[in-house]
Structure formats: C-alpha cells, structure tokens
C-alpha cells in the first residue's frame, strides 16, 4: 500500500524441473544367456514430459563403483542389454530425462547373474521376439508423449 492505493495481482508459477527417478528396475535373462531385458516403471512426467531414459550398469564383482552407460536414447520403459559376460552379476539403474535435464537415478536393481544355463526348464524369448514387442512399446510411448505435450 502507498499513497496511491493498493492492488492485488495473482500469478501462477510452474517450476520446471527434471523428472522423478524411475522405480522397480528389474532385469530378466533372455534366451541367449548373455542378454537381459531391463524394465522399469516411470514415476510420471511432472510439468515437462519425459523425452527419454538413460540406462547404466555396474558389475558387482568390480572394486570400482563406477557405472557404465548402456544407452541414453531409450524412449520406452524397457531395453535389451546385450553382450553381458557369463558368470558375472550386474546391477542396473535408470534416470528419466526431459527438456530440463536428467533426473535422479533410480535405486539399483537387484543383482542379475548371467549364467551358462537358465534356471528354468523352458527356453526364454529370442531376441527378435523381444524386439518385436519393445519397438511398438517405444512408438506408443513416443506418440503418447507427443499427444500429452500438445494438449498442454
């Protein structure tokens, strides 16, 4: 208030920030026994839609605690990791990315040990079968993000 009077103006502020970390990161050995399907759940977009995911892995037998980047352009909530060493246990983590940047990484997955033999009786899915499933999911996820961003 001053000698001319007072006024009230309302405004809405939307804070743009990186997305929250994904949850339930999980790996499953595929039929080739040196590949794994890693999947996770998205915790939602926040004010900006998720544009992609970044996936990292780490060997649990390593003295170094550094992470190795597997891929940084994943558009679905699953990714096939190939060329894993047999007899080695791996953990995986994921972060979601949007126009603001990379969010926090997820909690690491439980260790997944790549074995010479499957621990089940039936054959796992073949790589081509998995790719046929994942590619439409990636397209659906991408189209959904385009659709949700156009309605804002």
TrEMBL record:
Coiled-coil residue spans: none
One Pfam family linked to the record: fn3
UniProt superkingdom: Eukaryota
Signal peptide: none
InterPro entries per record: E3_ligase_FN3/SPRY (IPR050617), FN3_dom (IPR003961), FN3_sf (IPR036116), Ig-like_fold (IPR013783)
Positions of the Fibronectin type-III domain: 21-118
Record's protein name: Titin
